[in-house]
Specification:
The chain has 403 residues and is an alpha+beta fold. It has 16 helices and 9 strands.
Length: 403
């Protein structure tokens, strides 16, 4: 019998049957359902940031039984024949989850203060960016994989975190020094601060914006710049990124229609990072795009981005960015969970198949670098991503998706 409980109520001996309102690829376990037998599995569940989950009381302990037996040790018989266990979550991912949660709270507080007309707490902003930059420089895949899986209602806040992380990572690929990477990160963190002044009903509207509403949304760079300019503690480069992150190399961007080299280095970086995260994120009015398909599509937009910088961005994320769906020679499907720096064509995958009910089954972790003969990628899985993520199809870019 399935029963919904709080994740914090999970104990050893319960039969985990899935998180509430969380897609399979968004949670930390490699199996969908299993008997909880180790403390590490409890740690993974509680570190996920998801509030509720389901248990099967016919296959494991119920809440009441668990409370009554919580001091009783596991019986030897159970230890002699343990159920299949999920592997321990990479400590780097656990740390990234914790950082992501902390950064999200700080960003929420920042936007709330801006809406109330308070002065920006630059010390807190710099501290958050320092932590994000340190995480990216130590293990870029971990934080970017965690922050990529944000939900639609988290977008406004975690978008700032994601763009910050992407800016730092891109800066490293471009050969910028650590100080410059952190400056780029701060610009990315503050780039959308002007959206704090856009009415919620417009910013979060599920349907198509009217021309008047879209014109209001397009004011966010100037509104953000005006706000940041009131504070002498905000560096010029951060204000510049805020104002110009929607400019395009061919001069068709806004608010000033700048061209080429007239757009600052950090603003050109932000234009790429902002669009990529927007397109690969779930929004109220659009579904997330497959990361690999997003990179492929962005590459066709002549005049939109600094070309050399965009190629560096592709190198930063890899041919198959974290979160991409790929098709394998065996007929199975793979979800990219980590890059292999020595060979970007052989990432680490969460491989799965579909059973007769079209549910995900037979999951395993496959490192194509460590076991090159086990299987190989034969194609990007754009349409497979649509099926897994409940998308109808890869839709053409709308101007709103980049606002």
């Amino acid at each position: 019998m399935l029963k919904k409980i709080k994740v914090e109520e999970l104990v050893l001996g319960m039969y985990f049957a899935g998180f509430d309102d969380a897609a399979w690829m968004h949670h930390p376990f490699w199996k969908n359902k299993f008997l909880i037998k180790s403390p590490s599995e409890l740690q993974q569940a509680r570190a996920s940031g998801i509030a509720c989950c389901w248990i099967d009381t016919a296959k494991g302990l119920d809440v009441a039984a668990a409370q009554a037996d919580e001091s009783v040790p596991d019986e030897p018989e159970a230890a002699a024949a343990p159920a299949p266990q999920a592997p321990e979550l990479d400590p780097e991912l656990v740390n990234a989850q914790a950082l992501c949660a902390t950064a999200k709270k700080a960003t929420q507080a920042m936007f709330a203060e801006v809406r109330m007309g308070k002065v920006l707490d630059m010390e807190r902003c710099v501290s958050v960016v320092e932590e994000i930059a340190s995480s990216v420089m130590q293990s870029p895949n971990a934080l970017m994989s965690v922050v990529r899986l944000k939900l639609a209602d988290e977008y406004t806040y975690l978008h700032s975190v994601a763009v910050c992380a992407l800016m730092v990572a891109l800066g490293r690929t471009l050969g910028l020094d650590e100080t410059s990477c952190r400056e780029a990160g701060l610009g990315g963190f503050l780039h959308d601060i002007g959206k704090a002044f856009i009415p919620h009903d417009i910013l979060n509207k599920a349907g198509k914006l009217t021309d008047e509403e879209f014109a209001i949304v397009r004011k966010h760079p100037e509104l953000g710049y005006k706000y940041l300019s009131q504070d002498p503690n905000v560096p010029d480069y951060a204000r510049n990124v805020c104002l110009y992150h929607h400019e395009k190399i061919d001069g068709t961007g806004y608010p000033e229609g700048l061209r080429g080299g007239a757009i600052s280095l950090y603003a050109r970086m932000a234009a790429i990072c902002d669009v990529y995260d927007a397109l690969t994120s779930e929004r109220r009015y659009k579904h997330a795009w497959d990361p690999a398909e997003t990179i492929s599509t962005m590459a066709t937009w002549n005049g939109h981005f600094d070309r050399a910088m965009f190629l560096a961005f592709v190198k930063t994320l890899g041919i198959y960015p974290v979160g991409s769906i790929v098709k394998l020679e065996s007929g199975r499907t793979g979800f990219v969970i980590r890059q292999n720096d020595k060979d970007l064509t052989r990432p680490v995958l969460k491989v799965f198949s579909y059973n007769d009910n079209r549910a995900i089954s037979d999951t395993e972790i496959l490192d194509l670098m460590a076991t090159p003969d086990a299987d190989k990628i034969v194609a990007r899985g754009g349409e497979e991503w649509a099926r897994v993520s409940h998308l109808d199809s890869m839709q053409l870019l709308s101007t709103r998706a980049l606002s």
